[in-house]
Write a structure and sequence with these properties.
With 585 residues, the chain is α+β, with helices and mostly antiparallel strands. It is built from 21 helices and 18 strands.
């Protein structure tokens, strides 16, 4: 370097006389040369230090990444979303059982197919290969997603084990599987509206899944038990399906309720759906007609009208009403379907289902009393049950004399079947209203109901309901040995400018056994069609009543309801005859 002559010149060794003079060998500006050389050395050393530090940092970073990659590969070799999956797996949604312990809803681990589009070689070829093993795959969507610049796209979620194996065998680059929980409903369509369903994120969307979503998703996996009895549910469902087919009805609804506890032990809405594939069904199939739909219930309301008159003491069972002519009221004419054309007692108004007589009873009690009484029966509000989809009633805009008259026989007001059966249960429960519930009630649990009518009024109405089965329009609802009490209902559907007499809502509301009321049953058929067996009639007495009788005959033994004493005697006689036949001469 240039400094070596300078360094020799300041050495302590002997100076060689042959060398040129110092002034000639050295640069002219010595101070400038020293400063420049010192700055270059310092800068070079700093650069080297920085490079060493940067290299060390890079090495440490790559080392940490390598360790993390090894950890992820060992923990989840095929799952790049292991951290997300761990959060999902740690939160288990509770199972749903019926009152007997049968599983209605549970959670299973499934595999979902995803892709990293940046790792896919050919989007079209990959989509075509996948469509060969995944029927119904949306090819256009998959090609569009695989052609994107995203690092993650879903292809299909919740694969079956067979589908997963088929995709795995394809060996496609850029695709992988992620473990996900899936809600499964082992009983399928049976009780689908009661149990409900969830979305892909395991949040309840309908039925018990939605009503008890907080408890089910609490994370502790604690199950939820329902008051539904699947054996009762099966027979209720089977009879309603047969009735729908027999009478070519658009839809049907059926409910069985414990009148003392409010427990719903059976609830069916038809048509129904498969909760394992809810989005493959039509909206009308997912509609819970037992709670979510409201109907003008027709003559079933006459039970409440009679109870109103007895409770307000505006009439007795022997009070008379002139039903010999149609009733003119506010420009409307009220007729009887099967006119008796004579004076009727209050009891006869009920058993002959007279619209004229029912209107006169309600008008005598007054609009305010009617509105207040129906309010006590919770018929002017959504049914107080856990189902979020429980519907509000449709009430008249004004409640004048005309509305009072028509509401007395179930027109001009639309309520849900669950609200209707709960009101009938109050009559059967000695006048005490107990809210309907989907939760089982323990044997030693104390229930607080609300008295909505006196015991005497409730018993009198119940006696008329029994008479309606033995001597009135509800004879087809009798179930041998279980002494059914009930009331038919037939309402014409509202139509522009009035009602359509060809489109009916036919129903029957029942209580059994009459002498020891335990359960209430409601059957409703939407637009049933008369046939040869009904002589063309499609009213409640011809369509809903026989279905109710068959349901009671089937479910009473399951519910532990004993047959009446008179039937016990006849059965005992049959047993004696079988075991001790008369001597042959």
């Amino acid at each position: 370097m240039k400094l070596w002559p300078f360094r020799r010149s300041v050495s302590t060794e002997t100076v060689n006389p042959a060398l040129p003079p110092l002034a000639e060998a050295a640069p002219a500006d010595m101070s400038r040369l020293l400063r420049v050389e010192s700055d270059e050395v310092q800068a070079l050393e700093q650069a080297r230090s920085r490079l060493r530090m940067l290299g060390l940092a890079v090495a440490v970073g790559f080392g940490l990444l390598a360790l993390r990659s090894i950890e992820m590969a060992v923990a989840h070799p095929s799952d790049p979303l292991a951290g997300v999956n761990a959060d999902i797996a740690s939160v288990g949604r509770g199972e749903i059982f019926d009152r007997t312990g049968q599983v209605l809803a549970t959670t299973l681990e499934t595999h979902s197919l995803y892709a990293d589009p940046t790792q896919v070689w050919d989007a079209a070829e990959t989509a075509e290969a996948l469509s060969g093993v995944l029927p119904g795959l949306d090819m256009e969507r998959v090609i569009r997603d695989l052609s994107s610049r995203r690092r993650f796209v879903w292809i299909q979620r919740n694969l079956t084990p067979r589908q997963r194996q088929a995709v795995f065998a394809l060996g496609l680059p850029g695709v992988g599987f992620r473990s996900e929980p899936r809600r499964v409903y082992p009983r399928g369509r049976l009780a689908s509206h009661v149990v409900g369903y969830t979305d892909r994120d395991m949040a309840g969307l309908a039925g018990a899944e939605r009503a008890f979503n907080s408890a089910l998703s609490s994370g502790d996996g604690r199950p939820v038990a329902l008051s539904i009895d699947m054996a009762v549910q099966f027979h209720l469902d089977e009879v309603l399906r047969a009735s729908m087919i027999e009478f070519d009805a658009l839809a049907a609804s059926g409910i069985v309720m414990n009148v003392r506890t409010g427990e719903i032990v059976g609830m069916v809405s038809l048509p129904d759906f498969d909760p394992n594939r809810p989005m493959e069904s039509e909206p009308g199939e997912r509609l819970n007609r037992s709670a979510q739909s409201v109907y003008e219930m027709g003559s079933t309301f006459k039970a409440f009208t009679v109870a109103l008159a007895l409770e307000t003491e505006t009439a007795t069972l022997e009070s008379g009403y002139d039903a010999s002519n149609p009733l003119q009221l506010g420009g409307h004419t009220i007729n009887d379907y099967h006119a008796e054309d004579r004076w009727l007692t209050l009891s006869e108004v009920f058993t002959h289902s007279s619209n004229i007589g029912s209107s006169l009873i309600a008008l005598e009690a007054g609009s305010d009393a009617q509105r207040g009484f129906l309010g006590d029966l919770r018929l002017l509000e959504r049914a107080p049950i856990e189902l979020i989809e429980s519907a509000d009633p449709l009430l008249p805009r004004q409640w004048a004399q005309t509305e009072t008259a028509t509401i007395s026989y179930g027109h001009g007001i639309a309520v849900s079947p669950i609200a209707t059966i709960a009101a009938f249960a109050a009559i059967a429960n000695d006048g005490v209203y107990v809210p309907p519930t989907l939760q089982p009630v323990a044997a030693n649990e104390t229930l607080v109901g609300e008295r909505v009518m006196s015991s005497d009024s409730a018993r009198d109405v119940l006696a008329l309901m029994r008479e309606n089965v033995t001597d009135g329009t509800g004879g087809s609802a009798e179930a041998q040995g279980y002494r059914v009490a009930g009331k038919t209902g037939t309402a014409e559907k509202p139509h522009r400018g009035g009602y359509d007499s060809s489109r009916l809502i036919s129903s029957f509301s029942a209580v059994f056994p009459y002498d020891d009321p335990q359960y209430a049953v409601l059957v409703l058929l939407d637009e049933p069609q008369g046939n040869e067996s009904t002589y063309g009639y499609a009213t409640g007495g011809w369509t809903a009543a026989p279905a109710t009788g068959e349901i009671i005959s089937r479910i009473a033994p399951i519910l532990g309801v004993e047959r009446s004493n008179e039937d016990h005697d006849s059965r005992a006689a049959l047993v004696r005859a079988a075991l001790m036949p008369e001597d042959i001469p």
